[in-house]
Write a structure and sequence with these properties.
By secondary structure, the chain is mostly helical. It has helices at 2-25, 32-59, 64-92, 96-104, 108-125, 129-149, 156-162, 176-179, 181-192, 198-222, 234-237, 242-262, 268-279, 281-302, 308-334. Helix 1 (2-25) crosses helix 15 (308-334) and helix 3 runs antiparallel to helix 5 (108-125).
């Protein structure tokens, strides 16, 4: 199923760069197109990528040594993001509180580092799937309870450190208890789909999409007091509650099933690019964040107004530069390209 995962990762990195360029650089009117980009860029990118990490841990049978190595690499990447992509920018802007916040902030790679350590424990204890998924659900419930009861918004150090475990502050993101359910579900799902045929994926496609739409509509239009999961609001997306976790799991299953059928129709020439984007996804991610954040600093300091057409052109430019640089970096320093 490598081709399926390559397609998903390629779609995710394209959507991420488009969403990040739009949310960071665009400063025009809030149009429907902008809202659509913002809506799809969060739920499609992060939950499904973490879902795929869980799948890879099972399918490639990661050893303890490999899990430790990947955990260490992920932690180093998380430090790189916090320092070079955010803290330095806020230091230039003389936002000292934000410098400290981002030096300590939990980002996606901090969480991934913890995920690899968690699965070392899972393998050592030889946890059964029912127990493992029950733990994931329990962690999500505990996160929801702790988030309501204990918040540390006024203490940056305490808030940042506790955010590693649960969503303890407004600026929390990718807390372990809130997000571990995605790699856990991916780990279990990869065992379920072994040797399955087209009919299985077709039913997965229909059932998961139906569940997602019902939960999304229920969240937005039925629940009194506002949605249980709102992708425009970091308090309900990054502070993922139980309902949001289950809803996004259904989206992960839908996207995987959809990509399974797409993988059978993609021409060879496009496949070559898809494999490259999938292989280089981490470097494209890092380079694009660096480019976009420092472009933001330039635009902010010069009070330049960026319209939607210019934003899309900047997206194309950033993605092409990130793609080329990732190719060069991997070819020269990491491994030879196919």
């Amino acid at each position: 199923m490598k081709r399926v995962k390559d397609i998903i990762k390629s779609i995710c990195i394209i959507i991420f760069v488009l969403g990040y360029v739009t949310s960071t650089l665009y400063n025009g009117n809030n149009t429907l197109f902008v809202n659509i980009i913002d809506f799809i860029s969060k739920p499609i990118v992060y939950p499904i990528l973490l879902f795929l990490i869980g799948m890879s841990i099972y399918e490639d049978n990661y050893s303890t040594k490999k899990l430790l190595k990947y955990s260490f690499y992920s932690f180093i990447i998380s430090l790189f993001i916090n320092i070079f992509c955010f803290a330095i920018i806020f230091f230039i802007q003389k936002e000292n509180t934000l410098v400290l916040e981002y030096l300590l902030k939990t980002n996606i790679f901090t969480f991934i580092s913890l995920t690899y350590l968690f699965f070392i424990l899972v393998k050592k204890l030889e946890l059964e799937n029912q127990t493992l998924w029950g733990l994931g659900l329990l962690f999500s419930i505990v996160n929801t309870v702790l988030t309501v009861k204990y918040q540390f918004n006024s203490n940056v150090v305490l808030g940042s450190l506790t955010s590693i475990i649960y969503s303890s502050a407004n600026y929390s993101s990718f807390s372990f208890l809130a997000w571990i359910i995605f790699p856990i579900t991916g780990y279990i799902y990869s065992q379920i789909i072994e040797n399955k045929k087209n009919k299985f994926y077709f039913f997965n496609l229909l059932i998961s999409l139906t569940i997602y739409i019902i939960m999304l509509c229920y969240s937005k239009y039925v629940v009194s007091g506002g949605p249980l999961i709102d992708f425009d609001n970091p308090h309900t997306f990054y502070h993922m509650n139980v309902y949001g976790g289950l809803m996004n799991i259904s989206l992960c299953v839908f996207l995987y099933s959809l990509s399974y059928f797409i993988s059978k129709k993609i021409p060879g020439k496009i496949n070559r690019h898809i494999r490259r984007w999938s292989k280089n996804i981490i470097i494209i991610y890092l380079v694009s964040i660096l480019l976009i954040n420092y472009l933001f600093l330039l635009i902010l300091n010069n009070l330049i107004e960026i319209n939607m057409i210019e934003t899309l052109l900047l997206f194309a430019l950033v993605f092409i530069i990130s793609d080329v640089l990732s190719y060069i970096i991997n070819k020269k320093f990491i491994y030879k390209q196919d």
